[in-house]
Amino acid sequence: MTEEITDPSDMNRMNRLKIEDLLPVTAVGIESVKESYTDAMSPHRKIFKWFARRPTSATRLAILASLLPDDVSNDELLEYMCIGPKRRGENIERYVIDREDKREDRSGSVEDHFGYPYPHKRVPEGSKLEDLHSKIKDNWDGDLPTVLDPTAGGGTIPFEAARYGLPTISNELNPIAWLLNKVILDYAQDIGSLQTECKIWANKMEEKADEILDEFFPERNGIEPNYYFRAYSISCPSCGKRIALSNQWWFNKRNDIAILPKYENGDISYECGDIDELSIPDGFDPDEGTVDGGDAECPHCDVVTERDELTEIFQEGEYEYEVCAVKYVDEINGSKYHSPTGEDYKAVKKAQEKVESDLELHTLLREERYLGLYDRSGPYGLTEWRDLYSPRQLMSHHAYLKSFKEIEPELREKHDETEAEALLVLLSLISVRQIARNARLSPMNVHFGYVGSMLATNNYTFQWHFGEANPTSGGQSFETFTENTLDAYEKVCNYYPSEEFKADTSVIQGDASDLPLEDDLIDSVVIDPPYGDNIMYAEVADAFHVWLRQYLDDTFPTEFQSQETNKEDEAVENPAIVGENNDSERDPAREHYESKMRGIFTECNRVLEPEGVITVFFTDKEVSAWDSLTMSLINSGFTITATHTISSERPGRIGVKDQSSADSSLFLTCRKPSNRDNSANEIPTLWTDIREKTHNAARERATSLLESGKNLTKTDIIISAFGPTLQVFTEEYPVVDKHDDPVRPKKALEEARKAVTEVLIEHELDSSLDDVDSLSTWYILCWLVYERQTIPYDEARQLGLGVGANIDELKSETKIWGKSSNQLVLKGEDYRVRDYDLLEAGEKRRARAYPVDPRDDSFDYTIDAIHAAINVLKAKGSEYAWNWINERGLQDSTPFCRTVRSLLQVMPQNFEDYELLVNLVSGETGELLDIDATSFIQESSENSKNATLDEF
Fold first, then answer.
1. Would 27 be classed as within a structural domain?
2. How many domains does the chain have?
3. Domain finish residue from 641, 675, 709
4. Is 198 among the domain residues?
5. Same domain, residue pair 694 and 661
6. Of 40, 334, 673, 865, which one has the fewest beta carbons inside 10 Å?
7. pLDDT digits (tens, 9 = 90+) for 838-878
8. Are 531 and 619 in contact (CB under 8 A)?
9. CA distance 3 to 551
């Protein structure tokens, strides 16, 4: 940057960046949702699964907006991002929103409807890319700035930076993610296409593996099997007879293919076929199995074996593997499902004997597994890595490893060192991709009849029945994985621009808090860090690591030298690593996470040049997580300058779902001041001295956004207001209260929410809520801010505290909200008010379940009076309701009338109470209340296409 900061409070004297200005977040949010569809994903995500991947469009926005000056218009930025049609003369963001509003009515593909390809398929070409480089260079002293991602994960950030020809450095602690970055940054750009060569070697591997496995997967009428439905059986501890264990007996529910376990003379056999053609006994339901909630009921004696005893049985190995059904795919006749035959049982037994007798197989993966706090399979005896597989699955995976080792010397002889390395890596990834869909933890997708991924939930979850794939045939075979992996890799190669714009890339493997980089070297950091306890990356990646280590021990002896991945240096909130600490007032796992993130951000500060910028992706919605992240940034010496949210749900209030379809991408942007002194000798600032300043900063930001005419949701506005609020806080840090106790960023965030809700009330409602009680105010604000019935619990709680309502204390007595997981569900009249007709008939039950009695003359909360009023209207009609309102003088109650008017303005039309409220303010009751609903109803209809709010 060209202008130096001489005072940390003068951050606005720097050359401001586009990311510190308004961004086209709605258009980018729409593109992020479009990319979430499987067929629209960027190909780098299909080479090998990683566990958290940001959308390409949001990533481009973070990278480019962190480098371009703030005078670049939103339309220019969208053009650089390849969003929108090539024609000029219209607002691109408005065009994208309009296309999205009409997407459900389209004919043809999504790309045809929008009039341009998915943005990840292209980057600016020729003169357009030159123009972008020129603008960036002018803003960075004539050079292209270097972009660093210190926690690169699946590589989306460095991949997109490199595609734009920017000098790029990628660092990743986990060796698997590091390997993926090498593939997409080094091999794809430096070596290019390897499809022909890789297929030659893959075919050789396949031939060798086929020779080993052929006899273990018997054909039926000349057709090879694709998938097996596998389960377990045990001896009933009560009667001693065999029990087939499964929690359901569907193989393909969509096609009505079920499995019927049959018991005779102490043996179990299985019949598979169309549910209407099976000889179903009375009481059998394929939706129900012998296992329910972890307990197993014996079909012979009806005695239930509880979970604790079942886990002991599995730990002792006192169970058998069952083959319950087989799926074959005939190219002519399609999928066929069959009962297992004698040949199937013989093949399974033969595989088990081979595993026990073959020395290599007998000793393969004998290492003890790391069992994390959330591991759901360890209690069932899966304590060694080999335990994740049935004998035939283990033998199948070993067959490809053995084939790989046999071809490796010849491959190295016929290719130069770099190309051989790339080929060996690709072949390893293809082989190991099979692991996830061919293990005891791989669930059967019973709705469609195929094998799912054992790590789909980012955890090791025990399966009562599991899928087994034939690796030599079908949709999850080695051949299929080869085709899919190489197709994705070739597309990645072709995604790079011409040689003229080739990026200088570096891929590092190591701890992000200890980078092998010089001080003040980097211009821009764009980072998508781990989020608290969201995913235990190292733990789940171990399933692949233990196999890749077998494949690549000679190729990367250093990176894959450890038996399992590094968990001690991982920046996650893992209680299993830090252990219990009952003496600490704070969660030790959270402290560990904060410490690791502080170390990473401190290192980013060290390698960033003065006035350099760091943009942090963030998706955690809890206030505590925001607080931790902000604290880590502050303690690392950064000053926060901007926040943004990229909503990931399609716009439109009509048909809004209770929960969002995907997470938002949140940006938190900071600067490294030139001369900031972070020593412990700084004079603390009193919170009371800056509270009003933080409040006003949020108010000013919210007001300017509302008046800007931009396509912003109310969540966008709240998140954007965090930026100037946190900037004030970081400039004044450290901050203490009147007792000299440290004040954390969450105080500033609470003040920001309070300020923004004030502005929203002033801007969105036709009257203030000053005389409305705190609970009713909170209820209105929830609808105003989130526009949905189901909202993030933590945010709703904070919203309540901001208006003086402790919703936790009020929950039991008011029943105005319920909880589902970490979501809060707003309740309406039907859930809260006792039925008037039943009360008149003498019904006295469930008074506690329905806290509002419509016969009462007065109510503790205005919302109670409103819910009672619409209940009376619904039950007794408008004339009765008129008298009911008049008797209680509610027509003269300012809080009652204001709350009704406000709810009409903010409540979604598809919520059942909305129509009742409209009826209340219509006809005779409307005349009594003197509320003209016409303007509210019309306004609500006009605003029905406002952008949907995402959780944050």
1. yes
2. 4
3. 675
4. no
5. no
6. 334
7. 776 666 545 457 899 999 999 999 999 999 999 999 999 99
8. yes
9. 52
- Burial readout 50-81 (b: 16 or more C-beta within 10 A, e: otherwise): bbbbbbbbbbbbbbbbbbbbeebebbbbbbbb
Of the three residues 700, 730, 764, the one that is the final residue of a domain is: 764
Domain co-membership, 731 together with 801 = no
Helix/strand/coil for 343: helix
State whether 459 and 603 are in the same domain: no
- Terminal Cα distance for the chain, rounded: 33
Q: What is the pTM of this model?
A: 0.82
Confidence at residue 944, expressed as pLDDT on a 0 to 100 scale: 39
Pick the closest to residue 819 from 779, 784, 789 (CA basis). 789
Q: Are residues 534 and 551 in the same domain?
A: yes
Residue with tokens 């930076």: 161
Same domain flag for 916 and 854: yes
Same domain, 326 and 224: yes
Q: Is residue 212 part of a domain?
A: no
CATH code: domain of residue 563: 3.40.50.150
Residue 617 burial (CB count, 10 A):
23
> For position 924, what pLDDT does the model report?
87
Contact yes or no for 261/328 (Cβ under 8 A): no
Report the residue count for the chain: 952
User: In which element (H, E) is residue 490 found?
Assistant: helix 478-495
Tell me which amino acid residue 223 is: I
Nearest in space to 151 (alpha carbons), one of 504, 455, 489, 514: 514
Taking a C-beta distance cutoff of 8 angstroms, is the pair 88, 172 a contact?
A: no
Token pair 């339309």 in the structure block, residue: 75
Residues 6+ apart with CB under 8 A from 539: 370, 372, 375, 565, 567, 574
| Integer Cα distance of 711 and 716 in angstroms | 9
For 538-566, b where at least 16 C-beta lie within 10 A, e where not — what string? Answer: bbbbbbbbbbbbbbbeebbeebbeeebbe
- Residue indicated by tokens 């790029």: 168
Tell me, yes or no, whether 163 and 231 share the same domain.
Answer: no
Residue 564's domain spans which residues?
Answer: 8-84+112-187+494-675
Give a three-class secondary structure readout of 795-852.
Answer: HHHHHHHHCCCCHHHHHHHHCCEEEECCEEEECCHHHHECCHHHHHCCCCCCCCCCCE
Residue 205 C-alpha from the chain's centroid: 36
Is 103 within a domain?
no
Could you tell me which of 832, 840, 857, 796 has the C-alpha nearest to residue 912?
A: 832
Do β-strands 168-172 and 225-235 pair in parallel, antiparallel, or remain unpaired?
unpaired
**Residues of the chain with confidence (pLDDT) below 50:** 1-13, 581-585, 648-662, 677-681, 845, 847, 938-952
